[in-house]
Design brief:
alpha/beta, 2 domains, 8-stranded parallel barrel, two-stranded antiparallel ribbon, 12 strands
Length: 286
């Protein structure tokens, strides 16, 4: 082969590699349906369910994590969502409901058309979440998760930060992961609360992989050092991309472990301003 031909081939190969790198840099990272947690619009729902669902639709959301609406049946609520092109992949349930009547929880979730049931809080005294609280949760989650699975549903516990108290060689959250049955109990990652509790979202996605099934897309204000309270002032919930979360790596790993439903949640007092900015950030994340 002539020297000129070799040089030409090498130049073409280099150009292809450079183009591939450029394409990767310009590739959109967030490629999922836009979902939102109903709590984001906690101030709007009491003023009118249909009006609030119209807001959600106009913002571009097609998935909603919700427990239904006061004053109407779950079937009625689902119809209002259906006509707006909004599905409800995940329904919320309280710890007491799961403990007392998991079958009723399943019935409600199915009426909403959900495939997942999430619980966002384990009862405990004050800010002191103990091993006894965790043991109680494991018992309830394993039993309720089995019932939900028998009804074609997947149960997910939504960690809230207080579970990151040290225990043995890890945390109480590690204990809950280890003691619950993988076939019956999965998890929802709330990025803000994991960060606030001292956890690392990227490391936890790597550590527990496919046991994460859902995600709350939420960012904690830069400079805030959290604690084990599971509480933080509203102003610490900020527009996506302006806080502490490493969203590029979080989404890459979340996709790798199989998470398909992402619910934006804004607990600030400026949700109507913040949410559109967060949507714009996700659309432009490359």
């Amino acid at each position: 082969m002539k020297k000129n031909s070799i040089v030409l081939i090498m130049s073409l190969s280099l150009l292809i590699i450079q183009q591939d790198i450029f394409a990767q840099k310009g590739k959109k990272i967030y490629t999922y349906p836009f979902g939102v947690q109903a709590y984001t619009f906690r101030k709007q729902f009491p003023t009118g369910v249909e009006k609030t669902l119209d807001i959600i639709q106009k913002m571009g959301f097609t998935e909603l994590e919700s427990s239904g609406a006061k004053g109407m049946t779950n079937e009625e609520y689902k119809k209002l969502c259906d006509v707006r092109g909004i599905s409800i992949p995940s329904a919320g349930a309280g710890f007491d409901q799961l403990e007392k009547d998991p079958q009723e929880v399943a019935n409600k979730a199915k009426a909403l058309g959900a495939k997942f049931v999430m619980c966002a809080w384990i009862p405990h005294k004050g800010d002191n979440f103990t091993i006894e609280d965790a043991q109680k949760a494991v018992e309830v989650f394993n039993k309720a998760g089995k019932v939900l699975k028998e009804n074609g549903l997947t149960f997910c516990y939504h960690a809230h930060g207080f579970e990151f108290r040290p225990y043995n060689d890890g945390t109480l959250l590690d204990y809950i992961f280890q003691q619950t049955k993988p076939e019956d109990v999965s998890f929802e990652m709330d990025v803000l609360w994991v960060t606030h509790g001292g956890g690392n979202p990227v490391k936890l996605l790597k550590k527990y992989g496919s046991r994460w099934k859902l995600m709350h897309v939420k960012d904690l204000k830069k400079g805030i050092v959290g604690d084990f309270s599971g509480h933080t002032p509203a102003e610490n919930d900020v527009v996506l991309g302006t806080g502490q979360a490493d969203w590029k790596n979080i989404f890459k790993l979340a996709k790798k472990v199989g998470i398909k439903h992402y619910f934006m949640e804004d607990e600030s007092d400026h949700e109507m301003e913040n949410v559109p900015l967060s949507i714009k950030y996700l659309k432009n994340l490359k």
